[in-house]
Amino acid sequence: MAAPLLLPLILLLSSTPPLQAQQNITQGSSLTPQGPTTSWHSPSGDFAFGFQPIDGNTSVYLLAIWFNKIGNLTVTWYAKTSDQDPVPVQVSSGSRLQLNSNGALSLQDSTGTEVWSPQVVGASYAAMLDSGNFVLAAADGSTRWESFKYPTDTILPTQVLTPGMSLRSRIIPTDYSNGRFLLDLQSTGVSLYTVAVPSGYKYDPYWSMDVNTTDLVFNATGAIYIGNNTEITSWVISSIADYYLRATLDPDGVFRQYMYPKKDNNQSNQAWSAVDFKPPNICGAQLTKIGSGICGFNSYCLWNGANNQSTCKCPDQYSFIDGERKYKGCKPDFQPQSCDLDEAAIMTQFMLMPTSLVDWPLSDYEQYTSITKDQCQKLCLTDCFCAVAVFHSEDNTCWKKKMPLSNGNMADNVQRTVYIKVRKNNGTQSEITDPNKWKKDKKNWIIGSSLFLGSSVLVNILLISIILLGSYCTITIKQVPAMQSSNNIGLPLKAFTYTELEKATGGFQKVIGTGASGIVYKGQLQDDLSTHIAVKKIDKLAHETEKEFTSEVQTIGRTHHKNLVRLLGFCNEGKERLLVYEFMTNGSLNRFLFGDAKLQWSIRAQLVLGVARGLVYLHEECSTQIIHCDIKSQNILLDDNFTAKISDFGLAKLLRTNQTQTNTGIRGTRGYVAPEWFKNIGITAKVDVYSFGVILLELVCCRRNVELEAAEEDQKILTDWANDCYRYGRIDFLVKGDEEAISDLKNVERFVAVALWCLQEDPTMRPTMLKVTQMLGEAAVVPSPPDPTSFVSTLA
C-alpha cells in the first residue's frame, strides 16, 4: 500500500470514537469471578473485560480481555503485576475488581489486599470498546489509561505500538507467564528475540526489519506496517466487518496474523486461521552462540510448511524433560558414557546412530579434516565427552560435539550426517511370547508377530510351509478390466546409466530412507528442470526375476495415479538394480503422524481417502492387479501439497521372499501383518485391506498401532483399544485432546467402523478397497462391524 493511502488510515486510527457513545462503567461498579457480574462487555458484545478462568480451572482466574462471541474465547490482553516484574496476575474466586469513587481501578484478592491497579486516579468512568481496548476516561472524555498502551502478546486492528513497547509470548498456550520470545520495537526498527526465562535477557534476534521508525500500526484493512509504509504482514482484507482479526506472538516464537469469520462464530468447528506470519521458517531463522535456540537444549526444530507450525523433537533414545514444557529440552534415556570405561567396554555398550536431515550447527569442540567416516565415528565413540559426531563426505571433515546441543534444526538442506551416541539395547525389550498363548490372547499374537520369533523352531517350520505353498505377495496374473484411458498409462520409463545416477546423487551420499527393498538416496538430475529424484538401490532380487527386471519394472511404470509415487526410470547395469522415483517433498506420513504436533483432522481425513483411492487403483483398475503387501505409514509419502502417495508398490514380485523386513517368508511390517500370513491359505489383495485398516486407525488417533510403553495395558495395541472404544460407545477416547476431531465425532466413528471391517479375521469378510472408499466417502452405508477378536484360536 502506498504511503499517501496510509496517511488517512493513521488519521482515522488517531481519532477515537466519542466515549459517550459507549456503554460506560460508572464509579462503584465491580466484578467478581463467580458473582452476579463477572465481566463488562463492549457495546457490540464482541469483546469482554473481566475474569477468565485459566485453562478451564474455575479456582484460578486472570483479569483479561477476550473475544466474547466465538467458541474459543481467545484472550487478547491480561493484567501483569508491573513493568519491572511483569508476572500475570492470577487470583482466586474470592477476588474483586472495582472502579472506586476516587476514579481508581483496583483488583483485590480474597484477603482484601490490592494485587493490581493501573495506578491512575480521577477516572469518571471506564469503557470496554468495540476495538478491544479497555479505557479509563476523565469527565471530559480524555483517556487516563488504556489497555492498548500495555500490550501482552497480542495486538488488534487500530492498535499502535510506539518505540519502547513490546510483545512477550506466553511460556505455553495454557500458561500466561512470560515466555521465551520477545517482539521489541525501537527507533531503529522491529526485532524478534529469544529471551532467557525467567530473567528476560535478550539473546540474538532471529528476525528483524531495520528502518527508521516511529510506530508499528495494525491498520483497519488488516495490514501491519512499521514506519510510514514498510509492511510486516501484507495481507489485506476487503471486508473487515466479516472477520475478527488479531496478531499474536505465539509461544513458539512466530508472530502470526489471524482471522476468524464472524458468521456462524458459535460453531465449535470454527478456528482461527493464520493468514501471514514472520519469520517464514523459524526453525532455520536463528543461530545464536548463547542459549538453546528456538527449541530447548538437545532437541531440534521441525517446520511443517503445510500448516505453518514448528515442532520441537527429541533424538532417538532421548525424551523431553517436561512433556508439556518442551522448551526445557531433552535428556538421554540412558546412562551417559563413563570416562572410566576402556575401549572394549565402550564398543560393547555404546553405538552411534545415524540421523539424516538434522543438525546442531554449534556445540563443536573438536574438528578433523582428511578423515574417513569410520574414523570419525570411532573418535567420537571412544571420547567420553563426545555426544554427537558429524561427518561431511564432500570434504571428509569431522566434528565432535558435546552436550548440551543447541540450535537444533531439521531441514532438507542439511547436507551432513549426524551420528548420535546411544547405549546399545537401551530400548524396552519385549518378552518373547509363547506361541501357545496366541490362541488365548490376540494382543500377544500381534506383539509376537511384530517382533517375530526368527529363532523359533515353530516359526521356521511355518516359514518353510509358507515358502513351499508359495504364499507370498506378487503382481498377480489375475486380469482385471482396464478402467484407465490410454492417455493415463504414464510416460515411458527412462533407462539411466549407473554413472548418471551416481552423479545425480553425489555418489549416493544423502540417505533419505531405508526399508525392506533397499536404501533410498536423494538426487537431482542434470536436466532443464533440475528435477529432484529419489533413487532406490535394490539390495537383492529373487533369482528368477533378475533376468526379468526390466520387463517387471515396465509393468510398474505403466501405473499412473495421483495417489501413487511415480516411477521415472530405472538402471539395469551389471549387478546394479536401481529405481528412480519422483521426490516427495514432505517425506513419509509417519514423520508427521507420530510426532508431537498432530496433523489437522481435516488433513488426516483427506489422507485416508487418498491412500484408499491409490489401493483401489492397484487392486482393481490396473490391467494387471498389484498387491502391495507392505502398506504402512512409512510407505505413504506426502508431496508439497500434502497429497498422500503410495510408494514401493509392485516390488513384491521382484523381491519375493528373499528380502523382507522380518527376514522370513512373511512379507510385511510389525503391527500391519494380516492373520492369513500365519495360515496355509492363499494371499490375496485382502492383506492390503487389513494393513489399510491399521493405517486408518493410526490416522484417526495419531499414534502407532503397537506402543508397548503405553501406560494402560489395554491401550498398547491400537486395534484392540479402538475395538473396545467402539463397542463401549466411547470413540471420543481415541481422539482425546484433538478438538477438531472431537467436533466431528460422527465421521470419526464412521472411520473407526470402516477400520474394524478391514481388520476382520476372515479375509472374505473384509470389504474390497472400492467398497472401503465408498463407505469412507459416505456413498455407502457402514453397518456395525462384527467384533474382530475371535481369530486367534485358529492360528495354531
UniProtKB/TrEMBL annotation:
**Locate the Protein kinase domain: which residues?**
506-781
The Bulb-type lectin domain, residue ranges:
22-149
Record localization: Membrane
Q: Which SUPFAM superfamilies match?
A: alpha-D-mannose-specific plant lectins, Protein kinase-like (PK-like)
First-tier enzyme category under EC: transferase
Task: Show which residues constitute the signal peptide.
Answer: 1-21
| Keywords associated with the record | ATP-binding, Disulfide bond, EGF-like domain, Glycoprotein, Kinase, Lectin, Membrane, Nucleotide-binding, Receptor, Serine/threonine-protein kinase, Signal, Transferase, Transmembrane, Transmembrane helix
Cross-referenced InterPro entries: Bulb-type_lectin_dom, Bulb-type_lectin_dom_sf, G-type_lectin_kinases/EP1-like, Kinase-like_dom_sf, Prot_kinase_dom, Protein_kinase_ATP_BS, Ser/Thr_kinase_AS, SRK-like_kinase
- UniProt-recorded name of the protein: Receptor-like serine/threonine-protein kinase
- What is the organism field in this record? Zea mays
What gene is this protein translated from? Answer: LOC103639215
